[in-house]
Amino acid sequence: MSEGTEVKNDWFSKFKENKGLFIGSIIIGLGLLTAAGYFAYIKFVWEPTNEESKTAAWKAETYLEIDSLNLALNGKPGDFEGLLSIADEYDGYIGGDRAKYEIGLALRDQGKYGEAIDYFSQTQFEDVMIGTFAIGAQGDCYVEMDDLGSALSKYQEAYNRMPNQFTTPYFMMKAAAIHEENGNFGDAVDLYKQIKDDYPKSEYATNIDKFIARAENS
Hints:
The chain is 76% helix and 2% strand. It has 218 residues and is an all-alpha fold. It folds into 3 domains: 1-55; 56-124, no CATH class; 134-218, Serine Threonine Protein Phosphatase 5, Tetratricopeptide repeat (Alpha Horseshoe). The protein has a two-stranded antiparallel sheet. α2 packs across α6 (94-109), α5 (83-89) packs antiparallel against α6 (94-109) and α10 runs antiparallel to α11. It is elongated, with a radius of gyration of 28 Å.
């Protein structure tokens, strides 16, 4: 047997004896490379693009504010991008989410409730206010579509999300109104009383007794 063959066989024997160690080292090495690549992507790609996305729609938003909905949605070639293209371009970024929310608002105002719901439902806001309103706005669209069951479900989802003095009683009031519309006055009373007890400082608690009395006497 040649010296080269002996060395090769010796290495192979050691590999078989320490197979788990060799494989574990490879897996750890690959994991470190993956982690390094992920953090590099976040720092050098995602974060800069995310910051860029926050201001990408500023011109389209100015047209949204003055109710020029078609310009806000579609933009003006050679001048500025519309919300629809910005939502696609920055999908997964803060600016893209905001564009989707604003598209939903524009479509709702145009009476395109089903399309508005689709855009509202694509948003993934983590904050209390806009994230909750994106859910509640779907409820508003369902009301316009005379689908009170779906509207109630969205209002309930909205008022159960991140309870606070503003959005929680606001969507409780909307849900209670649907309960009354459906003849479920006991459920409406429960919500009105919860607003009175749990959110006494909210503006919705100011005249809540008259809502309680009306529902109790219906």
